[in-house]
Amino acid sequence: MLATNKATPFLWGYRLYVIAFFVFLAAPLVAASVFAFNDSVFPALPWQGFTLDWFFNDSEPKLGMFHDRRLLRGIYYSFVIAALVATLSVTVGTTNAFLFVRGQFPAKNFFYIVMVVPLVIPGVILGISILVLASNTANFMENRYDFELELLRPGIFLVVMGQFSFITTITSLVITARLKKFDESMEEAALNLGASRARVLRTITLPYLRPAMIAAGIVAFLVSFENFNTTLFLVGSEAPLTITMYDRVAKVGSTPVLNAVSFVLIIGSGLLALISILVQRDKSVRWAPNA
Amino acid sequence: MQQKDFRRLALILLFAPFALWIILLIVLPHIGIIALSLREKVAPRVYEFGFGNYLDFLHEPIYWNTLLRTGSMSLLVTALALLIGFPIAYYIAKLAGNRTRGALFLLCLIPLWVSDLIRAYGWILLLRETGVFSSFLQWAGLVDQPIEFLYNDATVIMGLVYTVILFMIVPLVSTLDGMDNSMIEAGYNLGGNGFTVLRRIIIPYAMPGIVSGCIVVFMLTAGSYLTPILLGGKNSSWFTEQIYNQFITRFNWEAGAAFGMLLLLFTSVVIWLGLKLSGQTLANTVAKS
């Protein structure tokens, strides 16, 4: 149809453009990955031969990432934070979906917009505003009641709150979209057959929402794992990986161990993204062919 | 009666997490930061209410120049991302064969969540003086000494477009995918040429996707920190860097809060204008992507 009634040279040019775009898209990711396997202390040409030292070697000067204490600790904190953020934001995302799809209350459209707003606030501002509120509250408690609220000082709790504040919008939107497509007559049928409300929720509605909840959880996990702007202001002594890596880039400069970490992260987040697409694929795929 | 009570209780239980989230993490922090930005330091540990932090911003050309520069470069990045991304999205949604379509869209989705830091790091390895491009050009005999591609505005803009373009392409593909091909064919059958069909049929249809992509891309660019710092170096003059300096380096939270509010005000005004000019709302653009 569209493709066939255009001149072929134009279409060939168009295809070349698309190919060039994907080369552009891949170039820095390939560069970051490939030098992880170069047997040199600098991530640069010339190629000195293949090595896995930047992953597994246990001594300087080529300390591999799996023996680098600080990087491993960063990965561990990133995992803890991302898992907490994913759990919390999927939970609240699910209640929000029920609230906006099933609930009847005044000013619903207004509140729906309010729910979307955190996604269009720059991350830096979420970071500083939560930092300011938490510090003021903690200072107030300390001065007035002589009570030290350690939780509100920069650290894992604040990082989780900061990321949760905008990631919940993403999970809410994904789960809401799925719940909107749910056929409520299925619930009614189960109720008519004598099932309790809790049982209908557990055996019918939640299983239906599960693909969206898993996909939303994976996206939340990935967004949390790669977040830098919000985290930067809220981080305490438990620095997650992006902060540790940034410190390394800024202070030490580039070293191939960062390429090794990049390689692992690119593969890991690619696989997770793939899983999140596959679990949603069965029925409600956005990019499914029209046919 | 019991049914009604149950519904009310359920509604309250569902509303509670939403209200806690919005009030504790969005509304109160923003009230706090507005209050902080209106606090002037008159002497050590003595503060009074006033617009001093905002006046400082106006009196110091470096500050408002940085904001203007960040704003105009973000608009440029948004426009470039749309111009470069739209043909790609159109190709994926409308021109590619069934199998290629899925594969190409996957190629767009998989790197979507790779950290800005890794992307910028990859570009550094390619573009710096001892990087791959420079080495390649020397090896090919095109230049006789290393070339530094980093630390200039063109590279910062390229890097920003690279970081955000997938957030433009993905909503566009979703929107264009929902468009019926017969609409385009009808346009051609009625005698329109390629350009007319694009302008009168495809773009109006894709408008929610275009606006959604532009809003997200603009916000991400104006709020970005890593890409301008790492690719532009110390002189990248990005506004988020000013906020960071005030907060972390100079520990002047009052000024940092005022800068944060100015950035938020600026991005909100641009987003609001964009929505008004295109006749869209937040609910039918960003909420759908």
Mean pLDDT of chain A: 85
User: Between the first and last Cα atoms of chain A, what is the distance in angstroms?
Assistant: 15 Å
- Low-confidence segments of chain B: none
Helical amount among residues of chain B, as a percent range?
over 70%
In total, the number of strands of chain A is 0
Q: Return the string of H and E elements of chain A.
A: HHHHHHHHHHH
Count the E strands of chain B: 2
Question: What structural category do the secondary elements of chain A indicate?
Answer: mainly alpha
State the largest interface. A-B, 95 and 91 residues
Could you tell me the mean pLDDT of chain B? 86
Distance between the termini of chain B: 40 Å
Characterize the overall form of chain B: globular
Strand content of chain A: under 5%
H/I helix tally of chain A: 11
Protein traits:
heterodimer, A: 291 residues, mainly alpha, 70% helix, globular, B: 289 residues, 12 helices, 3% strand
Describe the protein in words.
Chain A is built from eleven helices and no strands. By secondary structure, chain A is mainly alpha-helical. The model of chain A is unreliable at 283-291 (pLDDT under 50). A two-stranded antiparallel ribbon of chain B has the order 1-2. Chain B starts with a helix and ends in an 11-residue tail after the last helix. Classes of the chains: A mainly alpha (291), B mainly alpha (289). At the A-B interface, helix 1, helix 3, helix 4, helix 5 and helix 6 of A face helix 1, helix 3, helix 4, helix 5 and helix 6 of B.
